[in-house]
Write a structure and sequence with these properties.
The protein is an all-alpha fold. The chain is 73% helix and 0% strand. The chain has one domain.
């Protein structure tokens, strides 16, 4: 019921915002046709096309950006959300980059943090099962739709007015942060009950949400100790990893070819539409596999989950995951993030334990963010010295953030800490992006700039 209420909240909020944008767009078009001496509808994009690249000088600005970037990367990767909602405002307000360059550098930081986080997680055993801590099945399910959503998000960022993007992000982030926060409180209470029972003489404990709690304690059956190299090789699944890289490479080749084509030309649209079959093929393959295996286990009386998610893999659930994957990628394309603001909370929503949700979300973000970094590099959208410096900060932050928080989870026996961090990062992103967006929207209104939808082809 809570999930349905959350979905209805998003649908209602998005519908009202988009309908308002249509009304404003019609009003603006009327004024453009009837009032003389108005600025062009594309005036809103003029300042955003100008590159503002400050010099890399070690002053108070770069020091503050380093601190914010380190903390944002550390907590963002732990929560599985990346931290793009913090990086973009930091790079524009503190350092002084233009919005597009800040979004490109944000992708560089997310890629560095997620890559180091994945490297750390490959050396960590699963907390309660003899399976890799990276859920490759969920990665194969969400990665293609996430990348497709990023393509859609980049296109919508050209068409949507800036104020509408701000409103949609605030609605989404407030909803996901609130949902994650209440889930964290629920987990905290259950962990408190379980800790109290564990302090008593050992009995058989049953818990309706035990999959979220048992990972914080020692398993009842001692497991054979493995060396770090054995854990590393066990966590690698080369066949599925190669399939993920194949999807990544296919999207990369298509984007490189598209960059050399005239926007809205015949070949441009052919390649754009060509992304859909490749995406749906991989997604459909994983859907069929999960559906058949889940049905087979249910028929044989095996209650064990196919993967980390505790939901039944029915057609409605698979469609819901597809829509959420596209939504996460679209937000990533609009915002300049890795899509983790949707993927992280979604994995928790479908029953994945926090450690695995964090590891899997950052694993998927590594692919999506690296694809964007290559695209931005080809477009010469960010300065190399700044990118290398900020990536090095994020790499260190991603590794040590995972190390510190996971040690803290084991010590306190509170996996809910990861969910609290996720909620806090999303809420902080909502506040920072909201302040930036509202301030810029007010300035656009004062300058009498066009506030409606723009045409895709003429706005490129």
């Amino acid at each position: 019921m809570a999930t349905r209420g959350f979905v209805l909240y998003l649908l209602a909020g998005f519908s009202v915002a988009v309908l308002s944008a249509f009304l404003i767009s019609d009003h603006e078009s009327y004024k453009l046709n009837h009032l003389p001496h108005r600025s062009s509808p594309n005036s809103v994009t003029l300042d955003s096309d100008e590159k503002t690249w400050p010099k890399l000088e070690f002053d108070w600005r770069i020091l503050l950006a380093t601190i914010i970037g380190f903390l944002g990367s550390a907590f963002g990767t732990v929560g599985g959300v990346g931290g793009g909602g913090i990086f973009v405002p930091m790079l524009t307000l503190v350092v002084g980059f233009d919005t597009k360059s800040a979004a490109a550098l944000s992708k560089c930081m997310i890629m560095g943090a997620s890559a180091s986080s994945v490297w750390y997680n490959l050396r960590v055993p699963h907390p309660c099962r003899e399976v890799p801590i990276l859920d490759y099945d969920l990665a194969l399910l969400f990665q293609p739709m996430l990348m497709l959503g990023i393509t859609l998000g980049v296109a919508l960022s050209v068409v949507f007015p800036y104020w509408l993007i701000t409103v949609l992000i605030i609605i989404l982030f407030l909803g996901t942060s609130s949902r994650s926060f209440f889930r964290a409180i629920e987990m905290w209470k259950e962990e408190s009950v379980l800790k109290k029972e564990m302090s008593q003489p050992r009995e058989t404990f049953a818990n309706s949400r035990g999959e979220l709690l048992i990972d914080t304690y020692e398993p009842l059956i001692p497991r054979e100790e493995k060396t770090p190299m054995e854990i590393f090789t066990f966590n690698l699944r080369w066949k599925k990893l190669m399939l993920l890289f194949a999807v990544w490479a296919a999207f990369l080749v298509l984007q490189i070819i598209k960059n050399d084509l005239v926007v809205c030309s015949s070949w441009y649209w052919i390649l754009t539409v060509g992304q859909f079959p490749a995406t749906l093929a991989v997604f459909g393959y994983e859907c069929v596999r999960l559906y058949k295996e889940s049905k087979k286990r249910k028929t044989s009386g095996n209650s064990e989950s196919v993967c980390e998610a505790s939901i039944e893999w029915t057609v409605p659930h698979l469609i819901f995951c597809a829509l959420c994957g596209v939504l996460g990628g679209t937000v990533g394309g609009l915002l300049g993030s890795g899509g983790g603001f949707i993927l992280g909370p979604l994995l928790l929503e479908i029953g994945v334990i926090p450690q695995v949700a964090s590891a899997t979300a950052t694993f998927v973000m590594m692919f999506s963010s690296s694809l964007s970094v290559v695209e931005f590099y080809l477009l010469k959208r960010f300065p190399i010295p700044y990118a290398l410096y900020l990536m090095s900060v994020s790499i260190l932050a991603g590794f040590w953030g995972q190390f510190f928080v996971r040690k803290l989870v084991v010590f306190l026996k509170r996996a809910s800490l990861i969910v609290f961090i996720l909620s806090a990062v999303i809420f902080a992103s909502a506040v920072t992006m909201g302040i930036i967006g509202i301030e810029k929207s007010i300035r656009m209104i004062q300058n009498h700039e066009f506030m409606g939808f723009l045409e895709f082809c003429s706005s490129q």
